[in-house]
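Lab notebook page, bench 4
Experiment: in silico fold of construct C2
Operator: M.H.
Input chain length: 338 residues
Purpose: comparison with the prior construct
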Amino acid sequence: MLTAGPNDVTGASFYGKISYLIVALTSRCNLHCAGCIQNASAKGNDMDDRVMDTLLARMDNGKPLLVQLTGGEPTLLPEKIERFARAVQQFRRKPRLALQTNGTLITPHLVAILRKYEIETGLSIDGPPELQEELRGGSTAALKGLRLLEAKRIPFRVTTVVSAASVGQLDKLALFLAAFSGCRGMGLDLLVKKGRGTTRALSSPESLTENVRRLVSTLRFINSRRKIPLQLRELSLLERGRGAAFCHAASGRSLAVTPTGRLYPCGQVMNEESFSLGSIEDPRPRHHLLQSVRLQCPEGVECELQGRCPGDCPSRLLTNGDDGQLICALYRGIQESC
């Protein structure tokens, strides 16, 4: 049982606003990915049971909640995944659970956990196996993991970091994923110039537009032959239209927790002290830049997507010093293909 502290009133109000929780179970990783924004390595911290239990007690507020278990590489700690998943079954309102993994450590035991606790599965894959090996490593193990998910009928989605190295193979990645009936779709994350990702940034909006056009055309061909279509996340966002904020962090409704219990507004700014929101035991709610940054069309420019453009990740805009040309090029490629 937690005891009351000096910030309990503020803390209760703060935690009550959260609808998206990112839990970094570890800062360790078994790979050395070229685009890693956290510079994760084999050494690091794992979340201990005290930190986890404190977090669980604070988040059981009876409100809708999506929890993403991440890292580092969370599948280094299947016992922590199961411990967390088991605990939230007792929440007043059971949250949705999701896992983001590089796929290299998927085992029958982990698959059983995913099925038992209905954990949605996302894999980080940047291209077909040869490119995956170049950018992340462990491609053979990741392919084995994909095949195991397929054999056990566990659906999954893929997130791709779009960089100078991967942009030209987006259509090939779609064809690779088409072989897996359990793959439900892919999302495109433009590279963030942070950590190990500073040297592979995209520089040509025109190339991005052309390659996204090819990707959408390839997905259309694939989906004409599939019972369950491969969805492109960005196409769904564009069809949905522009909302008040791009993401949960932009609306102040997300929270990322490090293995040591430090709090940040989203996973992409974890460990950046200028974004610190304190700790689980001592939260320090405050307005942060992610709530203020919005993608804006240049003055005087008429865009056919005005009023429908979903915008862009505020963390990426801040980190990259981006004027929006790349995300605009991405959405143009989609629009021109529809």
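Observations: The beta strands are 20-24, 66-70, 96-101, 119-124, 156-162, 183-190, 231-232, 254-257, 263-264. Residues 205-223 form the longest helix (19 residues).
Next step: discuss at group meeting.
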